[in-house]
Specification:
The chain has about 250 residues and is α/β, with parallel strands linked by helices. About 30% of the residues lie in helices and about 15% in strands.
């Protein structure tokens, strides 16, 4: 895939480039999980090939966008993520989404295929298919659950570091973001019959209790489908997560 030259789009405030490679031929664009920021994805710049750039979408309400309110509804969160992705499409790109981010990446891919420059591939990680949104809404963790239940869940899956858990202010901030994103995800509605043309690669942790069998993604793929199960739970093992781009067959 050849480089298309300088970007002619306006950079979005939510796009973070951990190690900018403007001459790279392609870009891995990451969309985060409930309550997540960009920190968990930034080290991937070190494991990507030199011809692949890394862009991470920072949702409102966190990190560099802390002064902005965190959306509590899907249309607002989705609209912001879509605008961020549209700002980096001067080169071929792969969309990656983890957990809630997998639904976001799917919907962004659909929108980009309908209106703009489509992704060359889509990677959906640690998520059941959008067609199962109604069932997912009935399972924990739910945005309205008590604080202690949500904190316990985030700690158990490895989303909260010991540093955050030990600091009441950081813990509350993480909880508030998780709850806001949770409300947004719970308002998501899949439109029946929606599929994606980009090749779809599904990643699942072998011990991820959040997932059903194969996750139900294959019927949504019309341009190629692959699923791989990797060691670990919702965030895989530490070693797998640290090198996750190397498991993406589309890169």
């Amino acid at each position: 895939m050849g480089h298309r030259g300088p970007s002619i789009v306006t950079m979005h405030p939510g796009v973070v480039w951990p190690a900018r490679r403007p001459d790279a031929d392609r870009v891995l664009v990451c969309l985060s999980y409930c309550g997540g920021g960009t920190t968990a994805f930034r080290p991937w710049a070190r494991v990507l090939a030199d011809d692949c750039d890394l862009a991470v979408v920072c949702y409102p309400g966190r990190e560099r966008r802390m002064a902005e309110p965190a959306p509590h509804d899907w249309p607002t969160l989705f609209g912001d993520a879509l605008a961020a992705v549209r700002s980096v499409v001067d080169r071929p790109y792969v969309l990656f989404g983890h957990s809630m981010g997998a639904w976001m990446a799917f919907e962004v891919a659909v929108a980009m295929e309908q209106t703009s420059t489509p992704p060359v591939a889509l990677v959906a990680s640690a998520s059941n298919a959008p067609t199962r949104a109604e069932a997912v809404r009935r399972r924990p963790p739910r945005a309205g659950d008590p604080d202690e239940d949500l904190v316990r869940w985030m700690a158990n899956v490895g989303q909260l570091s010991p540093v955050v858990l030990a600091d009441p202010d950081l813990r509350q901030m993480a909880l508030d973001l998780f709850r806001a994103d949770g409300w947004a995800a719970e308002s998501y509605e899949y439109v029946q019959g929606t599929t994606v043309r980009a090749p779809l690669h599904i990643l699942q942790g072998t011990d991820d209790a959040q997932l059903d069998d194969d996750g139900g993604w294959e019927p949504l793929a019309t341009g190629g489908y692959r699923m791989d199960r990797l060691p670990g739970g919702h965030f895989y093992t530490t070693e797998v997560w640290a090198t996750l781009p190397r498991w993406m067959s589309v890169l």
